Amino acid sequence: MIKDRRTITALNGSVLVLNRFYMAVHVISVRRAIVLLYRELAEVIDVDQGRYMNYDFDSWLELSQLKSIDETLNHDDYEWIRSPNFEIEVPRIIRLYRYDKVPRLTLRFNRRNLFARDNNQCQYCHKTFPLSQLSFDHIMPRSRGGKTSWENVVCCCLKCNSKKGDRTPEEAGLKLFRTPTKPKQNPLLSVKLDNPKYEVWRSFLGNSSMTMEVV
Ligand SMILES: [Zn+2]
Fold first, then answer.
1. Is 84 within the bounds of a domain?
2. What was the pLDDT predicted at 184?
3. Tens of pLDDT along 11-44?
4. Domain-embedded: residue 97
5. How far, in Å, is the centroid of ligand 1 from the Cα of 124?
C-alpha cells in the first residue's frame, strides 16, 4: 500500500502513449502506464540529452535505482514512485509494443473537450464552474436548425442555460463571451503542455496533437 504523498501525486501525473510506430496516440495516467509496463505491454521511452532510449520494466527499474543513489543528479528534477519494495522514476513517455492503430484524424466532439476549450467557463456570464454545474448550449437552438458543432455549441452554466431556453442569445438578452471555433490543438493537451515536465512530449506530437484523446 503506497501512502507517500509525493508518490500519490506522481501516480496521478500523465504519460504520453505512443503506438508501435512511435506516433502519439493517447495520454494516460502514470498509474495506468506503470501497469502496462509491468505487464510487459509497453516500454519506456526516455529522452536523455537529446537521445531516445528504450527500456523495458526491469531495465527501467534498474536505471531508476542507479539514479536514486547518484549524488550528481538533482533529485528534485525527477519524480519517483516509492514503495517499500522498489523506487522507480516516473516515465513521461511509453510505447505500446503491439498497438498499431494510428491516431484519429479529427478531434472528438464531446463534453470534456468542449468544456476544456471553454476553460469550464460559462460563455454567457463568464464565470467558472465545476463540471457538475455546467451544461452545453446550442447557440442557434437545435429546434431551429442549429447544428451540434464546435461553432454552434458552447459551455454554459445551468442558470444561463435555463434563462436562454429555446432562444438565440439576442432574443434571451445574453451576449457570447467569444465566438466559438474548432480548437487547433486538443484543449486538454494544451493545458498539459503548459507544464514544463511534459515538454519532452513535444517531439512526438506532430499532427496527432490536435486529435488525440487525453485522460
Ligand atoms: Zn452563466
1. yes
2. 77
3. 889 999 999 999 888 899 999 999 999 999 999 9
4. yes
5. 5
**48 lies in the same domain as 91:** yes
Q: Rounded to two decimals, what is the model's pTM?
A: 0.72
CA distance 64 to 34: 13
Residues 200 and 142 in one domain: no
At residue 107, the pLDDT reads 81
* Sign of the torsion angle spanned by Cα atoms 192, 23, 43, 17: positive
Determine the straight-line distance between the first and last CA of the chain, rounded to whole angstroms: 24
Residue 178 Cα to ligand 1 midpoint, Å, equals 13
In a domain, 24, yes or no: yes
Residue whose cell numbers read 495520454: 27
Tell me the CA–centroid distance for residue 93 and ligand 1, in Å: 38
Domain that holds residue 165: 111-172
Which residue numbers in the chain have pLDDT < 50?
Answer: none
